[in-house]
Amino acid sequence: ESYDMGGHDTYMHKEIAEQADAVDRVLRGRIDERFATVHLGGLNLDAREARSMRRVKILGCGSAYHAGMIGAQMIEELARVPADAEPASEFRYRNAVVDPDTLYIAVSQSGETYDTLAAVQELKRKGARVLGVVNVVGSAIARETDGGVYVHAGPEVCVVSTKCFTNTAVAFALLALHLGRIRDLSVADGKRIIEGLRRLPGQIDEIMRAEDDIKKLAQDYAEAKSMMFVGRVRGYPVAREASLKLKEVSYIHAEAYPASELKHGPLALIEPAVPTVAILPDDELLDKNRATLEEIKARSGKILAVAHQEQEKADHTILVPRNEVELDPVLMGIPLQLLAYHTALALGRDIDKPRNLAKSVTVE
Ligand code: G6P
């Protein structure tokens, strides 16, 4: 990929549009049909280590942190190891206990974010095993970690992350599958995930074909005073990232909550000028999520659902193609990147260089 805009008005739009190709690239050459797993050449973690670790801790900032939240869920689901993600800066300032049985993973597009790098250095100093999930080859974090997975999203120029976020989530799916197949994941489940991964690029193209509809919705949502994003479990990191994306490029205030937490406070904010974007995959939580839509409707809140099927209670539904449930977060974020983009466009924002933000924060 070159740095020219290739006919797009902004890098953000170009990078959103490149995602099917980018996902194709992160998968390329890594799938092992025979053992229903993936090869990750630079991982530097042998099977014995993969079996003996007792926890996974993922560290990153901004969108990388949100991709890490998705990664932690995938690792728990597919590899059955307790895993969680934390902002790298919080981790390093709270003098966290560094546990020898924990695998640490630093996530970064640039590989140069100071807080993430400093967390890696502190971990290494204390003897921890640290891997990287990084986009820029040979960057500081890639060099300082013991091994890892390259994200292969290609150069990302727009300050806000889109294709790298998506590819990082896919890179985590690969890592989770790899760890799962060493631990307890069956061949049948390995095959199921591989088939799901292969469907992603075509499904991303399908989502992109709905861009005109999303653009129309954005005209409407651009008038919001503030927006609420909600999801449960797999939908929650998607809500977090979508809320961040909207704030960054449109400057509309947005909050993300687990749908179950709405009743513990944020419901007080719901009114017609504060619409909610609800992430509702067809998973085991669909009924619970539908009940949330009813709670919002009862307070006259407007609802935009991102779902696998039309949602009666919602004012609008953006339909996303079905995949394996573990991979839902990869696809469900993409229409919301388009929503953020078109909302910012409708408001005349400086999309590629939002005020007060930098692509890579290399200072403390
Ligand atoms: C900055 C950017 C964010 C990005 C974060 C982490 O704050 O504005 O878009 O997610 O840094 O960057 P990294 O390069 O470490 O992924």
Automatic annotation (TrEMBL):
Where in the full protein does the shown chain start and end, and how long is the full protein?
A: 245 to 608 of 608
Superkingdom as given in the UniProt entry: Bacteria
Assembly and oligomerization: Homodimer.
**What keywords are annotated for this sequence in UniProt?**
Aminotransferase, Cytoplasm, Glutamine amidotransferase, Repeat, Transferase
Active site feature: K359
Q: What is this protein called?
A: Glutamine--fructose-6-phosphate aminotransferase [isomerizing]
Task: Tell me its EC number(s), please.
Answer: 2.6.1.16
* GO biological-process terms attached to the record: amino sugar biosynthetic process; carbohydrate metabolic process; fructose 6-phosphate metabolic process; protein N-linked glycosylation; UDP-N-acetylglucosamine metabolic process
Gene (name only)? glmS
Q: Which GO terms describe its molecular function?
A: carbohydrate derivative binding; glutamine-fructose-6-phosphate transaminase (isomerizing) activity
Which catalysed reactions does the entry list for this protein? D-fructose 6-phosphate + L-glutamine = D-glucosamine 6-phosphate + L-glutamate
Q: Where in the cell is it found?
A: Cytoplasm
